[in-house]
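Example record for the data management plan.
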Amino acid sequence: MAFLEVKNLIKNFGETKVLKGVNFRLDKGEVLSIIGSSGNGKTTLLRCLNNLETADSGEITVGDKMIFPSLHDKEDVLQPLTFGMVFQSFNLFPQYSALENVTLAMNARAERVLKKNKLKFFERRLKLKEIKIENKAKAEELLTRVGLQDKMNNYPCELSGGQCQRVAIARALALSPEILCFDEPTSALDPELTGEVLKVIKALRDEGHTMIIVTHEIEFAKNVSDKVMFMADGQVAEFGTPSDVLVNPKNELTKQFLQSFLENK
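Corresponding structural encoding:
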């Protein structure tokens, strides 16, 4: 049984059909890279997985949990987080330091969990204070893991693009999601900063994280992925190992895309 299974996922924006029945499966610990030209539904797929957009129909299952359609509009905060998202444009809060950007979501989730547990006000305040100390230590450990141990108190305006993206990765990891999603994590970076972000993603792969990466970095996809999915016109045009899709593609659209990529390098 696959860890993640997506069946016939459909998403329209008005009259525009964006996802036209997307199907794929991913095992636990695998890395899936999604490639394809802009406007073919890659980002919309990630946003539907992360509940940032609501699909019109289809199914999303993770383990034994039906994520979509679900009886609940929002994920139960008492359950582990299913998906974590790293955005193309970082989405950091400019008024907070790197450390604060990582702890914000953890602290907010802790508050919601404590409210669900219906603790008395003073019990909740005391417990939250303890949790915030633990969350700060966890955030420091995560920022160290992504190579930012000396930038914890810096604000986004004081960081390079690559450093901001590494803060965003630490923030996503902070909630311990079962599946980590990246939406073109290097497209907003200068070429010299791309390598530092890709190095972090490779390290996460080596640690066994299940990941889905929308990327235009074909060589990176070839080296880091267990599976590669090529999307065209809102559908999965080809799915397989990096060797199957990137070296010996069978679909004519995949061949054309890869040829165009080589010509534009």
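Summary line stored alongside the record: The chain has one domain: 4-263.
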